[in-house]
Amino acid sequence: MAVMNTESERPARRRSRYLKECRRDAAALVIEQHRTIVDVARELGAVEQTLGNWVRQERIDRGEREDFSSAERAEIVQLRRERHLLKKSNGLLGEGVRPVTRYRWISARKAQGHGV
User: Fold this and answer.
1) Are 70 and 78 in contact (CB under 8 A)?
2) 11 forms bridges with which residues in the sheet?
3) Distance CA 74, CA 105 (A)
4) Cβ contacts of 92 within 8 Å, gap of 6 or more
5) Distance (Å, rounded) from C-alpha 84 to C-alpha 90?
């Protein structure tokens, strides 16, 4: 069960067990020293799948593989949060609000001379 943060009413994020620098260093052992993920995971006491994820992301960040970099992923998450907050503050994300109510709001805004 997720712990709820009373300020934002969304689940609190669990702190990562490993620091970013440790993840990069572990991925570098696999990439630069041409070691297997299994070998490095056993040496570090990490789960193989987790280390594999770190290696994949490090290759993306280095430009060796096509996908979103860590910075781009963080920006996407931030933009999605902002979009959600904007929709919520504009009254477009109401729980239990029927579409008819939204259309009435749009019609009222247009009647007041506001663009929608």
Assistant:
1) no
2) 4
3) 34
4) 102
5) 10
Domains of the chain, start order: 20-111 (1.10.10)
* Cα Dmax for the chain: 68
Segments in the chain forming alpha helices (H): 20-32, 37-44, 48-62, 70-89, 99-111
85 CA to centre of own chain: 15
- Beta-carbon contacts of 105 under 8 Å, excluding residues fewer than 6 positions away, are 91
Give the confidence band of 108 by pLDDT, cuts at 50, 70, 90: confident
Number of H helices, E strands in the chain: 5, 0
Quote the tokens at residue 53.
Answer: 């994820």
Task: Encode pLDDT of 23-37 as tens digits.
Answer: 999 999 999 999 999
Indicate the DSSP class of residue 95: T
Distance CA 57, CA 25 (A): 12
**Residue type at position 33:** Q
Q: Using 50, 70 and 90 to split pLDDT, how confident is the model at 49?
A: very high
